[in-house]
Amino acid sequence: MKRPSWAPLDVDMNQPSIARIWDWFLGGAHNFAVDRQVAEEMLQLMPEGPQMAHINRMFLRRVVQLCVAEGVTQFLDIGSGIPTVGNVHETAQQADPECRVVYVDIDPVAVAHTRRLLADNPRCAVIQADLREPEEILAAPELRDLLDLDRPVALLMIAVLHFVHDEEDPLGLIARYRDALAGGSFFAIAHGSRSTERMPSEHLYAARSKYERSVAQVSLRSQPEVEAMFAGFDLVSPSVVWLPVWRPANGETPEDSAAPNAGYGGVGRKPRTNRPQ
């Protein structure tokens, strides 16, 4: 396969990527043949895949709109993937052109494409880093040049925490980010669920098995386990719920019985230290 102009030279084009498979599900063009092969095989096992990706993207847009409406104009999107239509900076800057966004992803293709996309946008930056290294991310000059951590920030972890396993202490990891945020900051999670309430179990488990053999291990979690990730934050109504149910916008049908198990979503806000006790 000929290497596309947007693909870094050090990227293995025979190794599938989480970010690029997600890009294919969202209708993007920044993926390799190996990514499309895995995605198409997953589609045979779990035809709900692209719809799940779009449900996650719609949740992300609603979260960003909420944060801007609440006066937060700084965003840190960790595990951002390849920024297709409806990405954070597009949604935030449409609501307020002064919004600043820092994207973080471990995938070099996602980072390279994001860097090209943002070349003419001085209020955005991208960092290649692992979400398991919060101190490195928070100290990065790209972040420090754009975001003021003494002011509220919206921290977004959309469809990424299910790649952090229990032995890696996801709650402790999140706490390290939380402690660096100012009071009034938001924290949003979209997380894969192991529930088969809205999806045939054979679809969920067959696709998960294929994904783990080809790409990465996944730790699907229950609603209470996702709620526990908001320790130290005040949950915003309606708490942690199915993604389509979280504050649906006009035209969205959250109770549609055809909506698959796209996982749980929620938003918390860090208390301000000077609030009344």
Q: Architecture in CATH?
A: 3-Layer(aba) Sandwich
CATH superfamily: Vaccinia Virus protein VP39
The CATH class turns out to be Alpha Beta
The run of helices and strands is HHHEHEHEHHEHEHHEEE
Named CATH topology: Rossmann fold
How far is the N terminus from the C terminus?
A: 62 Å
As a whole number of angstroms, the C-alpha radius of gyration is 18 Å
| Strand elements, count | 8
Count the domains.
1
Counting DSSP H or I runs of 4 or more residues, the number of helices is 10
Mean pLDDT reading: 86
Short description:
By secondary structure, the chain is of the alpha/beta class. It has helices at residues 18-25, 33-45, 49-69, 88-95, 108-117, 134-139, 141-146, 170-178, 201-214, 223-228, and strands at residues 74-78, 100-105, 124-128, 154-158, 186-191, 234-235, 241-242, 264-269.
What does this structure look like?
- The chain is α/β, with parallel strands linked by helices.
- It has a single domain, classed as 3-Layer(aba) Sandwich (Rossmann fold), CATH 3.40.50.150.
- Helix content is 36%, strand content 13%.
- The chain is built from 10 helices and 8 strands.
- Strands 1, 2, 3, 4, 5, 6, 7 and 8 form an 8-stranded mixed beta sheet that branches.
- The protein is globular.
- It starts with 17 loop residues before the first helix and ends in an 8-residue tail after the last strand.
